[in-house]
Amino acid sequence: MHRSNSGGRKDQNDRLLYEILVTIFASLNIVDLAVASLVCKTWNKACRDPSLWHKLDLSTLTSYCFNTPPNKIGAYRRSTSKITQFFKHILGLSDGNTTCLIFNYYVYITDEQLITIAERTRKLKRVVLPKTGDFSRAGVNSAMKLWRGLESITITSAVPGHYIFPALGRYCNNITEMKFSCGCIFEEKHAEAMVKYTPNLKMLSIRSIPASMKALQCVLSFLEHLKMVNVCHSFIRDTSDRRLYGLGFEDLRNCLSPLSLGKLIYCEGYLEGGWCLRCQNGHDNSRSRQPYGPLEDVWREDEITSLASGNHNIIPSRTLTLH
Ligand SMILES: [Zn+2]
């Protein structure tokens, strides 16, 4: 009897310790969590708790771990084997429980690394693709084939549109959210590909990138489920006009139907006291965040709450209003 009580107390204490460790580990970044998992068996077990791995935010990888210069796009390129080893370790801890994956803005990713990660994140629903990397059509196809449950994707200039869209059409039939990140250009060929390969799209963000007015009109006309388009700080232009100037608020009002106009999220910009994340983060002049810090925020975050991928405060969506 005594032994039984003692055994029960020990189980209770073990359970309490486990829960305390998981609570503490939830506040760690991905690198510190990886280090904690190497301390002892008890810590390693707590580090594997599924709740810690639903969102895998690689943007918290910091350069001191890999001895590379900070805030440099394409950094870590010479650390490929070390990075691969790190990915395998953390994805082993995650045990396939990750549903949201955010790549690092600065880390250069190879085909092999993308597939290695996709093989270990098969439950993925949202991905923010790498900003830099070297990808083949076959590599992108393999990753999307493994990510069949994907619902939300942030596309970057590192992955060519003629690779990603056919792959999404073939394997990922549940895509309802898409964001084009900085570095991309939103052109008519993209709009046509979206109508063809991702017809169920509900949310689109083309914030802070150059965009074609015809492409915008195309998605607003032919994607029947589209509810919201973020055009904050987009450089929207009429591509049939050779002059390089962007269309403003009044031009949008003239070019789009009231129904289409009502779907846009728009920011007037710095001078008019802009409300969006870009306006707020663009003023961050701290040295450690330069030169790409504000861009990194724009890459990861969005005013469409469901597309946002970080822990910053999300500003409520604001749509254009007709006067
Ligand atoms: Zn703004």
From TrEMBL:
Residues 16-56 form the F-box domain. InterPro entries: F-box-like_dom_sf (IPR036047), F-box_dom (IPR001810), LRR_dom_sf (IPR032675). It comes from the Eukaryota. Pfam families: F-box-like. SMART domains: FBOX. This is F-box domain-containing protein.
